[in-house]
Amino acid sequence: MRVDTSAYICAAKNAVLKVGKLREMGKKRVVFTTGVYDLYHTGHILYLENAALLGDALVVAVDSDARVKRQKDPRKPVMRQDDRLVAVASNRAVDCAFIFEDFDEAFQAVKPEVWVYSPTSDLGEHARRLVMAQAIGTDVVAVESKSAIHTSGLIADIVRRFGPPVP
Questions:
Q1: What distance in Å separates the CA atoms of residue 51 and residue 142, rounded to the nearest whole number?
Q2: For 5, which DSSP code?
Q3: How confident is the model at residue 24 (pLDDT cuts 50, 70, 90)?
Q4: Side-chain half-sphere exposure of 49, counting CA atoms within 13 A
Q5: Model pTM?
Q6: Which of 43, 67, 135, 163 could form a disulfide linkage to 145, CB 3.0–4.6 angstroms apart?
Q7: CATH top-level class for 5-160?
């Protein structure tokens, strides 16, 4: 039983060391993915579990708060990065999780055998990343969460149900 999630969390600067230790333990096929994981829900859990099936170890880079505000929406994320990181690290499919600011740096630190992305994410950004992945021989796989639950849908549902605050 997993109790202490801190064993699965590392600083971005230490990701290369953590991944090296995973490989030394015989986990040779490292799977890498990124995401915001805001309002951590069933869709996230299933996505990570499906990603983990593609290799021996799953490494997850969680978007920093600043990155989310800059690239997605200045009102997001709802949950702070440290809380989102602990939620992701608590998933038994995850071997290592860290906060990241720059995709290229995170990807180069991990040097995964498999890069997994969600087909619902920005495909324009993935085109550049695909070239980088192919240059080092990384397999690229789109993985669906197989869940109808999505963070934007949860937020919309909360707003619909609870509406604006009553004075």
A1: 9
A2: G
A3: very high
A4: 12
A5: 0.91
A6: 43
A7: alpha beta
